[in-house]
Write a structure and sequence with these properties.
The protein is mainly alpha-helical and about 80 residues long. It is about 55% helix and about 0% strand. It has helices at about 5-20, 25-55. It is rod-shaped, with a radius of gyration of 35 Å.
Length: about 80
């Protein structure tokens, strides 16, 4: 995105003055300022909420009593062992 210099800002202000007129332009500026203020409040509140949530301690994981699982093996895959004395 290219940088906007003073000449471009002046051109935008002149176009806005022609389109909206000198009476409506201050009202639009005030509305824009109020909208930006509310947006900043909302994002600051959201950021504070997320930061607070990250700082809270994480609960320990719940470990259930695990029972061993029997695995079915084909009889041909098992080799018999000789009894040891």
């Amino acid at each position: 995105m290219p940088n906007i210099g003073p000449a471009e800002i002046l051109l935008i202000l002149i176009v806005a003055l022609v389109v909206f007129g000198p009476r409506k332009l201050p009202e639009l500026g005030k509305s824009l300022g109020n909208g930006l203020r509310e947006f900043r409040k909302g994002t600051a509140g959201l950021k504070a909420e997320l930061d607070g949530g990250l700082r809270e301690s994480v609960p320990a994981p719940v470990v259930l009593d695990a029972q061993p699982v029997a695995v079915a093996v084909a009889p041909s895959a098992v080799t018999p062992r000789a009894p040891q004395a």
